[in-house]
Structures are given as C-alpha cells and as structure tokens.
Amino acid sequence: MNRRKLMASLAVIPAIGLATPVFAQEEPLKVGFIYVGPVGDGGWTYQHDLGRQAIEEEFGDRVETTFIESVPEGADAERALSQLALAGNELIFATSFGFMDPVINVAAKFPDVKFEHATGYKRAENVATYDARFYEGRAVMGTIAGRMTESNKIGYIGSFPIPEVIQGINSSFIHARKVNPDVEMKVVWAYSWFDPAKEADAASALIAEGVDVILQHTDSTAPLAKAQEAGAIGFGQASDMSNFAPSPRVSSIIDNWAPYYIERVGQVLDGTWESKGTWAGIAGGEVEIGEITEAVPAEVKEEALALKDSIASGEYHPFTGPLNRQDGSEWLAEGQVATDEELSGMNFFVEGITAKIPE
Amino acid sequence: MIDPLSVFLLLLSASTPIVFAALGELVTERAGVLNLGVEGMMIVGALAGFAAAHATGSPFIGFVVAALAGAAVSMTFAMLTQFLLANQVASGLALTLFGLGLAALFGKPLEGIKAPAMVPGPLRINWIVWLGIAMVPLIWWFLNRSRAGLILRGVGENHDAAHALGYPVRIVRITAIGFGGAMAGVGGAFLSIAIVLQWTEGMTAGAGWIALAIVVFSNWTALGVLAGAWLFGGVTVLQLRLQAAGVAVPVQFLSMAPYLATIIVLVLISAQQKYSRRSGRAAPGSLGQNFYALR
Lengths: 359, 295
What we know:
The complex is a heterodimer.
Chain A: H1 2-18, E1 29-34, H2 44-59, E2 63-68, H3 75-86, E3 91-94, H4 100-109, E4 114-118, E5 127-132, H5 134-148, E6 153-158, H6 163-179, E7 184-189, H7 196-208, E8 213-216, H8 222-230, E9 233-238, E10 249-255, H9 258-269, E11 277-280, E12 287-290, H10 298-312, E13 323-324, E14 330-332, H11 340-344
Chain B: H1 4-30, H2 38-56, H3 59-83, H4 88-107, H5 127-145, H6 147-157, H7 159-164, H8 169-195, H9 207-217, H10 222-244, H11 251-275
Helix pairs in contact in B: 1-5, 1-8, 1-9, 1-10, 2-3, 2-4, 2-8, 2-9, 3-4, 3-8, 5-6, 5-10, 6-8, 9-10, 10-11
C-alpha cells in the first residue's frame, strides 16, 4: 500500500509542475516517514506508525502522509530519504538511530525539506532530533525485575551498543539492584533491531543461563513468547504487547510519539518549525508505563508506580549518585544527577554489571 | 560452564528451518533449476502454517498446510521459468519479493496471536526437528541410489541429453521446484510455529538466503547441507550462549563467527575441488539454464 502510494505521488510531480495554479486550492502538506522495521512488528515501528496515523486524524485533508517500511540502516536509507524528498514531502521523519548520517547527507541536498531524526544527536538547519527518555521507564521495569526474579538473574537482550541502549541497561540494573542487592544481569547483543528468530534464540540462551526475568531492547515479541514457554517473565518493549498479558508480559514501556508528531506538523503548517533537540520522558507523556498486571504482587506494583510518579514529578532522576562506573571509578557523587550530555554519550556500564560493552 | 548438550539441543532447533529450506533447494538445484525465491516461499509457509495451526489448534496440520502453500507459490516460479522461459534469477528474486509482500498483506489479522502448543518428541525435541534430520539420508538415498534420483540428476547435469533420452525434463523440474517449495514452506512454518511461536511480518529475516548459501556450501550434497546448517546454527547459538554466560570474547567476533565459519569452509571446499576434481560433486551442469525442446 505504501509503495503504491509512493509511486502515485511520484507520478503526480510533473503534473503539479505543469498545472497553473488558477484555483487557489491549498496543497496538503506532505509528510514522509522511513521505518527500520515492518509496521506490523508490534513494537517500535508500530508505535511510530500510530504517531503517523494520529497526524492524519488530527489534520485530515491538510496533510498527506507516506511511509517506507523495513529500510535498512546505512546507504539504502539515503535512497529512501531522497525518494521521499523528491516525491514532494516537506517534512520527513526518520525513525531509527542508524538513519543519522543518511539524514544529514540527504538534508544537505534538500535544504527546503525539513527532517526529524529519532534518537540521534546530529542536527542541522533543517534537521531536528527527538528522543524519549526510555531510561525512565527502564527504571520502573528494573524495579519490578529485581523484585520478581527468583534466581536473582535477570537478562537483557540488547540491539546495538549505542548510548540509548546502554542507558536502558544501566537504568534497569541500578534499580533492580536497589531493591535486590543479589541481582545479577546477563547481557546478550543481538546486533539487530528486528530479527524474531535471533531474538528468540537470545532469549533461550539467557533462560539456559538461569535467567527468569528478560528485558529487551529489540522490537519483536519473540522474546516474550520464549519467556512464556519457559515460565519466565518479560516486559513489553516500545509497544504495550498486551497480547502477552498478564504473564509473561507483566508491564511495558510504551513509546507515544503522537503528541510530538502532531506538534511538529502543526509548526510546519503555521511556519514556526525550527531545528531543535527534544528529549521528553514520562512527564511529557512520550514514555508511558503499560498496565502492571496481577502477576506482580500488589506491594511491588505500588513501589513501581511510586517510582514512576517521583520520576514524573521531577523529584527523582534515575541516574542519581552515588554511582560508580564499571571499573570502580566514581561517576556521580552522592546526590549528583547525570547531565543530558553525559547520558546522550553514555558508553560505559555502571558498577556491578559484569558484561562488557562491545567496543 | 556451558553445558554442551544444551547447546546442541538449541542448535538442533535453531538450524531446522535452514535444514528444510536448504534440502528442498538442493533437490531443485540438482534438477538444474536455480530458485532464489526460498525466502519468499519460507515466509508464505510461515504464515500459512501458522494460520492453519491457529485455526485448527493442530501444529501438525499447520506443517502440512505450510508444505502445500510453499509448493503452491513455487508453482508461479515454475510457470514463469518452465513454460514462459523467464530468467530464473529474476523470477526467483521476484518470488521472494512477492512472497514477503503477500505474507505481510494476509498476515495482518494474525499479528500478536500465539501459536498452539506442540507435543515434544524424543529428548523433548520437536518432532519436526527429527523429521528434518531424517530427510537427510532419505534425500541422499533418493539422489544417489534411486532411479528417479538418477533421472533428476541427469536433467540437472545436461538437460539436452536427458531430453534426447526421452526423459520429461519439464515435468521433472516442475516436480523438483514443487518439492523445494514444500520444504521451504515447512522450514518457514517451523520458524513461526516452533521457534518464534507467533506470526511476525518479515520474520524469516534472511533465513532463505542463508539456506541458498548452504546449498553451495554443501557442494550439492545432502550431508553437506546438514553439516552447513549445523555449523551455521551451532555457531549462532553458541555465540549467544557465550554472551549470556559473560565469556570475555569480543561480541563483534562472536556475531560475525557464523558468517566467518561459512566463508572459511567455502574457501576450503573450493580449494579442495581445484586440486582433486571428482565427478558429480560440483554444481549441476545445467544449473540456472532454461530448457526448451527444439524438436
């Protein structure tokens, strides 16, 4: 459907060029998206597509959206982005970290097109970045994980060793340890955002190591299916994944991109859009905590929700000292809070995690 | 310490989709047809098998339906290449794209649904895994010891000669393509019904391409396919286990290990072939060439 739409919009370009604008009919604003996975992944890409649908609902005929799904990170992304820019999209959302350099390259070639890049840190005159503080949600998941594990081993399926993922691993671990000093964390890198078979194998490997709570930073529901088979528990990632509730999915981190997307499209429509970096979290509504199910004891649920509330109110920051780096050197002193710069470049594990970050 | 038996059991199931798909492709290629649509046939099998298993509650019926569905989509390829004499490489790629799109389209309502539970076979291993292993000697026997297998190989080695001897080249090839489709379908269904336990769009994630590479790796022998699939699956599983166990080996090395191992063996095989050429062990002579009877 998306490809066909794209073809149709490509075919329309010459027609627009030739037609003299006798009728002052306003052309709809064209908004394009590239996704790293299929919209049916039930996780990360699915949530971005919900955001796209929210734009259509909000603005109706004033916007026209297109998307290209399953775009590999790397050179192919440049082709997809150029394609969208050539098709007349004035605002393009690139929704994965690995699209960062392609976005910067293509944006330089199309100075009139505005680009929005998710989870990256490179900006330009016409490139804005946006991200969500997933680590806030991870703190809540870590608390539940630390309380729920019986083997005192929790597992984490990482995608790529980039700051966003490392923040999540650290945040989960810090908060699991806080409620359960005996907890250990095993980390497996899948080197993919979306590969259900590999994610399932990674979950099996963790379970074979004695892990009974699995956290994931990959996009499919395969690890949850594996957890269920083995009697372990896990969490919804990016999307609610409520099909697996009440167990193995005991809670979830939900990315809600709709408010940001609507805001930015609105700004393009009224001409106030400018390049900036946005990083909202639980307080801004971009990170939501999915329902904590009855598989979790009431007091643990209460504790988790209390943590969530204190993060939302700004009273507590998940990275508050005293915290040491993995090698034992001091990172944050008592009461000191990590800065956004430190977090967005985070490339180390905190003390207590035995796994090494691939370098 | 990592228990070798548990790694082996994980490897058995992780490599099964590739074992099926590669064995099917082996037979197809031995008949002289290069079908690059394995990925497409696998994903159609994954979807059809999952849908049938979900609808009937019986994983067994799911696998049967997956085989039928895989064979059915492979017939579009057979039609293009055997009757319309279209280029096999292009048609195969088209079949992959077609299969991925078709499955994505019809798979929408099945997203998020869980697969019915399977009754495990011996050693708490899925019956389909054992079936995949059993297919290896069966296919070896068929190719090397049966008359039908000899004809199939003859068609693959030199279709003009086979035609001159009166063998129905086209029918043999269509049958082989159908068999390859059915096997790829079962492999795909194993992924959705037994490994991932649900349907997800794009879930084959390149397994079909690995199966194609393993056929080359195997030097077109059934035992080689099993060895290749186990090597690839084994290293994949092992690297994940090593990571989970926190063994201090650089993760990048572990991640590339399956591919690296495959490349090394390919180099060894081609070196060995260069120095000791043995008949009937390299690529089939008519592989990838279309056949039409001049008279």
